Amino acid sequence: MKKVLIALAALALCSAAIASSGPLLTNAWATGLRFVSSQKGQGHGPTSSTTGFTSATTGINSSGWLYVTFKDNVGSAYAGETYQYAFTSAGAATWVCEVGGHGKGKNQDSAQQTTYFPNGSYTSGATGTASKRGVISGSAVIAPPDPPASTLCSGTWELGAVSYKLPSSSLVNTSLLYNADKVMTGTCTIGTACSDTFIGGVTAPTVQ
To answer: What is the distance between the alpha carbons of residues 153 and 133, in angstroms, rounded to a whole number?
Structure first.
């Protein structure tokens, strides 16, 4: 009889211990889930076909800068989180030496030189915060390659023409590691060159 009573007492103690540890185990599991879901840059993020870049349009503004405007859907679960983007392009600029003022090639010196980005391309960064619906609207710009040294022109170097060429991964969400190569549209599309002329008679340079 004593053995039975001891066994029942032990069982009661074991049940009480399990009951008291239950909430602790549940809280630890829930905390783990919250921690995992808030990680960025570790493969967590858009998983359905409706997430990712939904639009990305490029063009050249009146100053010869290449720009991109985009929308990225990371999902409502990531509302309020901040993401980093990288916009990359190769570029070539023709610079014209102007002496005695500006204006459609007037008083141009004979000097013209083409410059390129160091290392073949340039990357511009952008940051965006997800809305309540998990959508990020952002933009980034890339300025033309720098002009030649001022000592090579007796006047002022003016931008004559510029061309850009986007590589296949020109716009990347660097926090979640995916790119917009399938949705880029507009003046400069993925894998093709785009150019604009700012001074008459100057041929847009070829991008290396």
So the answer is: 53
